[in-house]
Amino acid sequence: MKTENLFAQKNVGVICVVDHASIHRSDRRAIRSYPSVIVPALHKTTLANGSLLGRSIIVVLAMLGGILQANHCTAEDPLTVVADFEGASVGDILVDDVARCVSFMPGGDPQRGWPCWWYFRVDGIKPNEAIALRLRGSTATVEKKKPLAASWAMPKRATYSIDGVTWLHTDEGKRDGQWMIYTLTPNAASVYVAWGPPYTPQTAEVFVDAMAAKSPHAEATELCRSREGRAVPMLYVREGELETEKRFGVWVQARQHAWESGSSWVAQGFGEWLVSDDANAAWLRQHAEVFLIPIMDVDNTATGNGGKNAVPHDHNRDWSPQPHWNEIMAAQRRIGDLVGDGRMDVFLDLHNPGPGDTSFFYVLPRDMLSEPMLSLRDRFIDLAYTRISKMKPLIPMSNKPRVTGSNYHPLWRQISSNWVSMNGNPHTVSLCLETVWNSENSTTAGYRAVGANLAAAVQEYLAERPEKP
């Protein structure tokens, strides 16, 4: 929020927004003695940029010399919130230039998914200055019910970057009633802050292009165009002269729920390992064809919306005979081709779980599967768990899968991993991996390491399988 010059009168200076509680008691008495320069306090105040402020007062700094202490509210160094870039989302902003604090809640349209994602930039920071972020949960109602629990929007540690490329954690935030307060000293004039490390459609495009430039065996392509006309980047990988019909089919997708940014970093780690010089990665390229989509819900990711439980339903409830979303239609066609060729070997859908969860797999109930699918699924889970659970630094993971059967959701049959299991080949392994987001190692490096270990588990599993006839 910028300091605003809202009045045309020659003698009126600038407007500075401050929290009433932050003004010294003596200053309040002085301000009351100058009623002609005070805009009355409002419960909801709208500024020229359309922002709604909570309970605050607006002080006109005209010829009041000395009324406010110099360090209280200075027009020359205001903090400014910027959210006009891809993936940005923030709402109900209140900037306190006295306390050097930004209060806010997640933005986003609840019709386009849970309002728990937040991502914006703060400008106007002084050298070596600490700033505070005061976060509260969204007040928007979801699914015609009460607001979403604030914990979904409140990681223990916020994520920040001074260049929009390298993402770091803040120290642990401190809970104060309805607020979570994060403090950071970015040592830069501007800092990007977010719920987790952002991964936008542009990031996905840069990634697939980089992998294609690095490896002659990787192709940067598109799954399709979204309903809003955006490209859905896809990485396609295969090496050597082995005929297509003799190759294993591997499908990896992330971000069916737009707010779950960590899952895209897991996908990136998978792709980076796949095109690496590792001998096992080379084996996988030579014996399989791999389809990797870092972001399925590109529209909600680009616009800073949550995606989860979007109207009419989200991407991971859309795997039906008549999908609503273009990405699902395109994925079903390609997966259907693999199934038709008897080559739908491994399907992995990548997500982030609830705020208190470790990493784990979602699976169909055992009584819904038959052999060899059941034992093959169990074998893959064992291989993946063994690798991921031994990572250093640790990414907490449970070896007990959770079930997404009829008691999980009314549209449980339209969940992607369930749909692939029920429509795949007898040997298809189809799983959803939920990677923990609320831990100290839930960073870009941690997520990418999960992806690399997941890819290595795919290779190890397929190396045990008989060759295609």
TrEMBL record:
GO terms for biological process: proteolysis. Belongs to the peptidase M14 family. GO terms for molecular function: metallocarboxypeptidase activity; zinc ion binding. It comes from the Bacteria. Its cofactor is Zn(2+). The lineage of its organism: Bacteria, Pseudomonadati, Planctomycetota, Planctomycetia, Pirellulales. This is Zinc carboxypeptidase domain protein. Pfam families: Peptidase_M14.
